[in-house]
Amino acid sequence: TQLLEQSPQFLSIQEGENLTVYCNSSSVFSSLQWYRQEPGEGPVLLVTVVTGGEVKKLKRLTFQFGDARKDSSLHITAAQPGDTGLYLCPPGDQFYFGTGTSLTVIP
Amino acid sequence: EAGVAQSPRYKIIEKRQSVAFWCNPISGHATLYWYQQILGQGPKLLIQFQNNGVVDDSQLPKDRFSAERLKGVDSTLKIQPAKLEDSAVYLCASSPDQGAKAFFGQGTRLTVV
After folding, report:
1. Which of B2, B14, B68, B93 sits most deeply, having the most CB atoms within 10 A of its CB?
2. How many beta-carbon pairs below 8 A join chains A and B?
3. Cβ pair B42:A86 closer than 8 A
4. Structure confidence at residue A94 (pLDDT)
């Protein structure tokens, strides 16, 4: 089992602010997935990153896969209350989740 | 497209009682996962099925937890007897195949008192 460490574990920001959350490991992964879990719901896949250095954008969310494929980051621009949730980054071929980053966006 | 269905949505039982959860995956999905999510933590994989065979059950507490997927479609997860620390949300997910995008159900919230 190759777990990734996510940071920060908790983040509370005001609406409109920018933020970045990180997913780090000493292991190399063929791919990484980012999921968001809203309160009371199951996780939903946001994106899969496959190529080292890859950047993917999903509206105000920007995902980057490290060049060495050991880490990834998620940057949110102008956060909105709808971004509130638990962000998880399991390896793409293994569905083991770490503790995630719990984000709260305050209106 | 219908999603992953789980029931019941909520369950409250006393410690030492038994409980069962049911999952109906998306039609045609070969892979099915059961997770335990304790409040404030990420989901912990309990068991992974590929069709009706077990791929990974290394984190399943086999002294009290059991799961089956007899016909390779629906699955049930059972706890017998329940302990206070089993209070959690139990999530079921399915995917077309191993490593493919997984779709999660809403989960069953279990409270053991």
Report:
1. B93
2. 44
3. yes
4. 74
* Distances from the Cα of A50 to the Cα of A2, A11, A47, B7, B103, angstroms: 17, 27, 10, 35, 19
Task: Classify residue A59 as left (phi > 0), alpha (psi -120 to 50) or beta.
Answer: left
Residues of B in contact with A44 (CB under 8 A): 104
Structure tokens at B36: 């335990």
Q: Residues 6 or more apart from B62 whose CB is under 8 A from it? A: none
pLDDT for A1 = 53
Residues of B with CB under 8 A from a CB of A: 4, 33, 35, 40-45, 48, 91, 93, 98-99, 101-107
Cβ within 8 Å, pair B99-A45: no
Q: Under a CB-based contact definition with an 8 Å cutoff, are residues A90 and A39 in contact?
A: no
- The percent of residues above 70 in pLDDT, for chain A, comes to 97
User: B107 vs A98: CB contact, 8 Å cut-off?
Assistant: no
A40 token code pair: 């009371």
Q: CA of A55: how far to CAs of A37, A50, A96, B98, B103, in Å? A: 22, 10, 23, 25, 23
Report whether pLDDT(B5) > 80.
Answer: yes
Which 3 state secondary structure label does DSSP give A82?
A: helix
The reply to whether residue B43 touches residue A44, judged by beta carbons under 8 angstroms, is: no
> Number of helices and strands (H, E) in chain B?
0, 11
State the Cα–Cα distance between residues B45 and B37, nearest whole angstrom: 9
Task: Describe the strand order of the beta sheet including A19-24 as a list of residue ranges.
Answer: A5-7, A19-24, A71-76, A61-65, A55-58
